[in-house]
């Protein structure tokens, strides 16, 4: 799915392009022939994620915080700039709120000023601890303002409201509610469940299950997520488009731990730790809207995606010299 501006390949801004999903998106856009400007403050992203493209003439890296006024020309922009892993956004709570509010407003203003289109990455966290299952886009969520997750959940909710207000004022913005995404280029210390379990299994350390592991998530491989984001950008103008993007296959965290042990061939133990603060009990996207409007659904099975991610972490740990395997 290519993005064109009057027959030309577009100049595309990827805010948060040095992060996990952003770096995959940057690579896809460059392969398509676009000029790509990556803006990232490197608070949770890494330039090493973009090592292979840093020298490309079509690629530009700007180390900047989107919470500060932005002076970048672009035809289209993807906003993936925000800490997204619970330990990181809890450590960077105020910065997370700023990225979701000041940062999103800066991007929306720049997009409106330049007549550019914006795809904003929101999150399944806007549904909080859902009382409706699976979650359709119409569900308003069950969220608290005074919780350890609120900086992210409420930040992302306000970001959506900013998109709504700018859309009314003529800005062409689309909202992607991303459910748990995983794949290569997650950071080994990211803190999210897939990277934690794989790194532990490969290192022979205990897999840490928070609570009894009966909570569920639905895991989407990153290439499927990136494909959906590109399709969302290419969608003709529609009435305030908001889309769940995720894989509807739901799994208990304890079953994920067992699957990772099976796929890695590791005999690391499973340790049960106290539940994480304000941890949602279940989560599964309803993706009928994306299926219909984007002609999209996830293609990569959890087993295949995990194998690829395990292969990536094997290399990372070998380079670091702390995997248990040859
Ligand atoms: N989780 C876990 N062990 C870990 C990391 C996470 O049991 O080492 C659990 C966490 O409590 C949550 C689920 O896995 O129920 C997904 O957590 P993650 O941080 O990946 O994403 P999020 O909670 O934002 O969906």
UniProtKB/TrEMBL annotation:
The lineage of its organism: Bacteria, Pseudomonadati, Thermodesulfobacteriota, Desulfuromonadia, Desulfuromonadales. The keyword Lyase applies. It is found in: Golgi apparatus membrane; Golgi apparatus, Golgi stack membrane. GO terms for molecular function: NAD+ binding; UDP-glucuronate decarboxylase activity. This is NAD-dependent dehydratase. The keyword Methyltransferase does not apply. Pfam families: Epimerase (PF01370). Residues 12-246 form the NAD-dependent epimerase/dehydratase domain. One of its GO terms (cellular component) is cytoplasm. It is a single-pass type II membrane protein. InterPro entries: Epimerase_deHydtase (IPR001509), NAD(P)-bd_dom_sf (IPR036291), UXS-like (IPR044516). Gene3D superfamilies: NAD(P)-binding Rossmann-like Domain.
């Amino acid at each position: 799915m290519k993005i064109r501006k009057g027959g030309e390949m577009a100049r595309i801004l990827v805010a948060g392009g040095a992060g996990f999903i952003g770096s995959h998106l940057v690579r896809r856009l460059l392969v398509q022939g676009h000029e790509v400007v990556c803006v990232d403050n490197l608070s949770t992203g890494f330039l090493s994620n973009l090592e292979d493209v840093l020298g490309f003439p079509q690629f530009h890296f700007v180390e900047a915080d989107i919470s500060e006024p932005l002076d970048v020309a672009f035809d289209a922009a993807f906003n993936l700039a925000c800490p997204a892993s619970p330990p990181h956004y809890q450590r960077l709570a105020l910065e997370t709120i700023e990225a979701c509010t000041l940062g999103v407003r800066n991007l929306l203003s720049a997009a409106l000023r330049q007549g550019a289109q914006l795809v904003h990455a929101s999150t399944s966290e806007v549904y909080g601890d859902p009382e409706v299952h699976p979650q359709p886009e119409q569900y308003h969520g069950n969220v608290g303002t005074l919780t350890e997750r609120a900086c992210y959940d409420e930040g992302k909710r306000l970001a959506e409201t900013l998109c709504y207000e700018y859309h009314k004022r003529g800005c062409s913005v689309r909202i992607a509610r991303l459910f748990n995404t995983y794949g290569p280029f997650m950071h080994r210390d990211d803190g999210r469940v897939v990277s934690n379990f794989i790194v532990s299994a490969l290192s022979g350390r205990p897999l840490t299950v928070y609570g009894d592991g009966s909570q569920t998530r639905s895991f989407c491989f990153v290439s499927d997520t990136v494909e959906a984001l590109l399709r969302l950008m290419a969608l003709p103008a529609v009435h305030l488009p908001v889309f769940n993007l995720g894989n509807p296959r739901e799994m208990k965290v304890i079953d994920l731990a067992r699957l990772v042990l099976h796929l890695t061939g590791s005999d690391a133990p499973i340790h049960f730790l106290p539940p994480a603060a304000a941890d949602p009990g279940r989560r599964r996207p309803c993706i009928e809207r994306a299926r219909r409007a984007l002609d999209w659904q996830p293609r990569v099975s959890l087993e295949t995606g995990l194998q690829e991610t395990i292969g990536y972490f094997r290399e990372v740990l070998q380079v670091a010299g702390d995997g248990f395997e040859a």
